[in-house]
Amino acid sequence: MSLHNLLSADSLKQIDREVAKYPAEQSRSAVMSALRIAQVEKQFLTNDLIEAIAIYLHIAPMMAYEVATFYNMFNMKPVGKYKITVCTNLPCALSGGYTSADYLKKKLGIGFNETSADGKFTLKEGECMGACGYAPVMLVNNHSMCNHMTPEAIDKKLAELE
Ligand code: FES
């Protein structure tokens, strides 16, 4: 299926802007941006969407699949309105990342890779987010970071999302 049938004109314009940053024969360099833009519009990436992006960028579908499935920022299935990704890599783990994750699990009533019954929250385990100095950290919808995740900081963040 054509990408024109799957995404809005605005998303296509954004993808074209990313593609234009690279030499014509290097359009594959825009694959992460294209996947990100598609996900912002569609919330998760379907096989059709990934294939259409590959065709649009003139790359093999497998190359786009590899990127989409390697990075945990990409959603390969529906997620809640707020996807909370808790970093559990070493510096965060040593600073209480798992304790914070347990607090979140209890508070939301879900485990990792689960979505709350009301469809509001999905909890994910994530890799280092390059913010080890603020450990433990979590990301909301891949963009908004919560530093030093004490129970109070988590409560504050969740209250903002309610
Ligand atoms: S280990 Fe968590 S941000 Fe680096």
Instruction: Tell me about the largest β-sheet.
Output: 5 strands, mixed
CATH homologous superfamily of the largest domain - what is it? Answer: Glutaredoxin
Helix coverage percent: 40-55%
List the uncertain runs.
none
* Count of DSSP strands: 5
The separation of the N and C termini measures: 37 Å
CATH level-two architecture of the largest domain: 3-Layer(aba) Sandwich
Number of helices: 8
Shape: elongated
Look up the CATH topology of the largest domain.
Glutaredoxin
Q: In the CATH hierarchy, what is the class of the largest domain?
A: Alpha Beta
Provide the succession of SSEs.
Answer: HHHHHEHHEEEEH
Q: What is the total domain count?
A: 2
Question: Would you give an account of this structure?
Answer:
This protein is α+β, with helices and mostly antiparallel strands. It contains eight helices and five strands. It has two domains: 3-70, Arc Repressor Mutant, subunit A (Orthogonal Bundle), CATH 1.10.10; 82-161, Glutaredoxin, CATH 3.40.30. It has helices spanning 3-6, 9-19, 31-42, 47-57, 61-70, 90-94, 97-108, 151-161, and strands at 82-87, 114-115, 121-126, 138-140, 144-146. Strands 2-3-1-4-5 form a five-stranded mixed sheet, covered by helices on one side. Helix 2 (9-19) packs antiparallel against helix 3 and helix 3 runs antiparallel to helix 4. The relative contact order is 0.12. FE2/S2 (inorganic) cluster binds at residues 87, 89, 91-92, 128-129, 131-132, 135, 137. The site of FE2/S2 (inorganic) cluster (FES) has 10 residues, from helix 6.
